[in-house]
Amino acid sequence: MVKRKLGALEKVEADLPNLQNKIRKDPKSYIEDFRAQHYQYESHREIFMAAPTSANDTGIISLRELIDFISHVADCYPTITKDFPQQLMDILTQHHLVLEPELREKIVGSLVLLRKKELVDSATLLQTLFPILITTPSKTLRALIFQKILMDLRTANQKTINHKLNRVMQTVLFNLVTSDRTSSKGLWAIKLVRELWKRQIWTDAKTVEVMKEACLAENEKVVVGGVRFFLGGDKEREEAEDESSDEEAIDMGQVKHQAGINKKTRKKAKSVEKARAAVKRKERKKNQPHPLNFSALHLLHDPQGFAESLFARHLQTAKSKLNLDQKLLVLQLVTRLVGLHKLHIIHLYSYFQKYLTPRQPSVTSFLASLAQATHDLVPPDVLEPLVLKIANEFVSEASASEVATAGLNAIREICVRQPLAMNDTLLQDLVMYRKSKDKGVMMAGRGLLSLFREVGPEMLKRRDRGKDASMGLRSGDKREKRFGEQETGGIEGIELLEQWKEEERKKRRAEKGLASDAEDDEDEDEEDNWDAWNVEDDEDSDDSGGWIEVESDAEIELSDSEDEKDKDPSRPSKKAKQDGTADEKSESNDASKLENKFSTLATTRILTPADLAKLQELRTNAAVDALVPGNKSSRKQNSNAARHIDDPLTAEEIEGLAALSAGKATREERIARAKEFKTDREDHKSVTAKRKERKESQGKSTTNKEKQRRKNLFMTLGKAKGKNKRSLVETRNVLRAHQDRQKRGGRRGNIGM
Amino acid sequence: MGASTKRKKEKQKDFQKAKLKVGKARPKPENFTDTSFKSKSITLNQQSLTLSAPSSASQFTHHLSLLTSRSDTQRRDSLSHLTTALSSRPTNSPPPQPTSVILPPLLPLLLDSASSVRTQLLKLLRALPATDIQDHVAQILPYVRAGMTHLAPDVRLSAIDALSWLLSTAGQDVVACAGGWIKTLNCFLSVLGWHTAESAKWSANRASFGKSGAKGGGVVVRVLTVLAEFLNAGIAPQDTTDSDVDIYSEAGGPWVFPLVQPAANMVAVGTATPYLYLNLFGQPRDEEGEMYETREDRFRVFREKFMPAVERGLEGARQEGGETGRASVGVSKVLKVAVEYSC
């Protein structure tokens, strides 16, 4: 019998991917075929459910394929497949332990696919996957599910924040952490929360609450995970943000240029379009207001209670199972909370007492924590014994220079925060170490000295006070701050703004040829500002806007004597006021000028967005100026101011320059250290090389000369050979022509165009 | 001169490669030693002492395990071996392995891609003792249904054949077991394409996926015949004389030793699993997977769900005429009888 030949179509058509493709194109016509496959799936599921453990070869593989197939086209036949997602979930939840790995992954993937097609809602999906994530022993499955959960939460929050889903999920995580404090399952909650926090998907207090509960768990892994989140989560988030903003800086000009030069294809056109869209998106993003992201430490409810229970549960009790490193982490968190929120945990300071010896492992971390835990509302008599102990244990002629440095630095950091913890005899003693031969000790001693020149010069000996401090003392400017005294605060950098405004005004008056001190056209200036409510309008309104108008001249004559300092808060009623109060103000101004150190700018007028932008610019300028070398005095002042209150104090800062005092470093070590400090400067290069590099990076071409030099030798050989065969006359002509060309300046002649 | 050329040639000969020719034995090297020898008798140190070949029982199990082999000829040969082993055994002697052991490896072969394997499998199934099959119907049916809706038309056809065999051996169990009624009927409708009014029309544009096989119309005829058998088993009026036992007479049925008045205690006598309908250990069943044990139940369900579709389909088939029309008449006849009986 002749074997019947299968037609090519017949062979190819009978596979699921092909059917899937056809269904996508025309679901209505293929409904019968889909129904058949759905029954097929049903039967296979029945077979599988009867014996889920038996890894039946044909049966299960085709079940996998069927699941794949149905989940891909499920959206075309919602009525037939309405039970399908639930069936998958049942299989997964009941049998995930015994399922064949490939089938398991397929089911998870299919569920996520169904979620994308919106046949399952996120909450159901997460409630199915999350229990499996916690219970399954399979590592690959856990990784897969974790990734899928994360992805789903991200997509759910992409367009708008899905508050409902977030709340459900956060409650689940919260319950996971709180239900069994001894189990390590809370780690999954921590991992998830940390990831979402990093991507700025979850930024609210509820999230922080989950982590707070994790910190108070009894399982050490969970505790450490929670504590690490508080100590490093925000930094991680910032870094992630920086990375995302750094990437893909598209140079639109170059893209356009290249599109103009290269062959025009549809693909190229598309890529240009894409680049344009990306740039536009980025622009829009830049203009958007910065999202208010509070750090996790600020979002805590009841930081006092949290810090107290952390301290009591993990540090104070002898029963705590944490090892030293873990304890240090917890201690760092507690002390940061204390420093940041100015909490009072009086036991904390006596707890430090026993760890402050040079033999204690990682004592610098303890010192840093102690300094961190200090703030200006801590009673000085609690701190005084600690400072004394540090001085006795660490700082002596006999102790190693690193130890002395660490001690002095720690004392300085404590006194920065609470100067009252120091008494004058001890201080005068410690300040003497600035004469030490060791560099680290010397620098630490000087640091202490300069600190107290600012905060408490009368505690120093007269000759140590320095010029500024002595003068300040005499004039009564520098007084010791009382316990609990608070500085009245203002807007950072507002005086810079005021100064700038003053300069601008002077400049304008100079242009107009008026005396720089006299009353300005304030009204019009203000008008100007109101016009410049938007930052964008700033430039043009500055010079073309109001101030050329002549109407303000009258006003200059009216309020001649008025100083520029007084600006009225209410713009409309200004004119009326000016006449009446002009003379009174001029008298009182001189007196109040001295004591009124704060700028009145913020209290007397509304700052426009343009003003705020300028303020920001001035602030950054000032910060940059302070860092420029050669500007020593300002740099010193800013070294402490530069530290933000949110930043942690690290052990490295306590160790300070101790590394320098290790005199016996070998040459290699010294070189390595020098390299560490060196910024990554480019290698030295000639100007030409640099120029060439720049040209190359800009995508520009080379000169003709360069091209000639680079030309492949074999391309030039033929011509060179021909030269040998020239006659004398020919050679002469060539040489002549060359000479002529040189004179003219090239083939085209150097005619100046 | 002469001597030197000769020596040169000799020297070169060492480095020359021997040309090999296709089909020719490789020339023996010069230092070849012939190690063959002749002997009058050969003595083996060890040898098997069993006088007979492996026992038929062990061969049977071996071939049973070979059913999952990769090559389809191997599977087919094993099947045929099993078939002969089963059919050639003396009557009334039990098969070498119990049916519960034989069936599980057999069932996936219903979906086998090789048609020779499937036909051989049918032969083997027919050789199995019919009484044992009754207890395994619930196990077999899902595979049959999977085969009926398979993408490949050949598999569909052989699954229909298998169903026909199953109906002939244990018809009542097929229609009464869990999921046996509604699900199987669904599969029938799907095979015939009778689910919706539109697809049942003969003129409908049926962009059916996968060709219906070589015989084309033959498949439909076969399906209709088996459908008639199926409906006959399910809803045809049964002769009630033997099933309607006098409940209280102990002599009514065969004496079952530990049971007293089995029917009064609601214990079904004929089956191995009398309490199956309680579904004590299985998955909870939905409407489709439910057991419909009596004719009335089945007819009610049939009339509610399938009657219109089936009638519509039958009408279409009748109008088509030819063999299909004739086959459809068989189904209609069964339907008519059933309707008349229940009215």
Descriptive account of the structure:
Helices cover 65% and strands 0% of the residues of chain A. Chain A is mostly helical. Among the domains of chain A are: 106 residues; 133 residues; 155 residues. In chain A, helix 5 runs antiparallel to helix 6, helix 13 runs antiparallel to helix 14 and helix 15 packs antiparallel against helix 16. Chain A is extended. By secondary structure, chain B is mostly helical. Chain B folds into 2 domains: 64 residues, no CATH class; 195 residues, no CATH class. Chain B contains 13 helices and no strands. About 8% of the residues of chain B have low confidence. At the A-B interface, helix 1, helix 2, helix 3 and helix 4 of A face helix 7 and helix 9 of B.
Write a compact overview of the structure shown:
The complex is a heterodimer of chains A (753) and B (343). With 753 residues, chain A is mainly α.
Largest sheet of chain B: none
- Report the radius of gyration of chain B as a whole number of Å: 32 Å
Total helices of chain A: the number is 38
Counting DSSP E segments of at least 2 residues, the number of strands of chain B comes to 0
- Specify the number of helices of chain B: 13
Largest sheet of chain A: none
Which outline of chain A best applies?
A: extended
Largest Cβ-defined interface = A-B, 33 and 34 residues
State the separation between the terminal residues of chain B, measured CA to CA: 123 Å
Please provide the ordered H/E string of secondary-structure elements of chain B: HHHHHHHHHHHHH
Features:
heterodimer; A: 753 residues; mainly alpha; 65% helix; B: 343 residues; 0% strand
Topology (SSEs and partners):
The complex is a heterodimer of chains A (753) and B (343).
Chain A: H1 8-13, H2 16-25, H3 31-50, H4 57-73, H5 84-95, H6 101-116, H7 122-135, H8 139-156, H9 163-179, H10 186-198, H11 205-215, H12 220-246, H13 252-261, H14 266-287, H15 303-316, H16 324-341, H17 346-353, H18 363-372, H19 380-394, H20 401-417, H21 424-431, H22 439-455, H23 467-475, H24 494-512, H25 522-531, H26 538-544, H27 553-558, H28 574-595, H29 601-604, H30 609-627, H31 632-641, H32 651-655, H33 658-661, H34 667-677, H35 687-697, H36 704-710, H37 713-724, H38 728-744
Helix pairs in contact in A: 2-4, 3-4, 4-6, 5-6, 6-8, 7-8, 9-11, 10-11, 10-12, 11-12, 12-16, 13-14, 15-16, 16-18, 17-19, 18-20, 19-20, 20-22
Chain B: H1 2-15, H2 56-65, H3 72-87, H4 99-106, H5 115-127, H6 130-133, H7 137-148, H8 153-176, H9 182-192, H10 197-200, H11 217-235, H12 295-320, H13 322-342
Helix pairs in contact in B: 2-3, 3-5, 5-8, 7-8, 8-11, 9-12, 11-13, 12-13
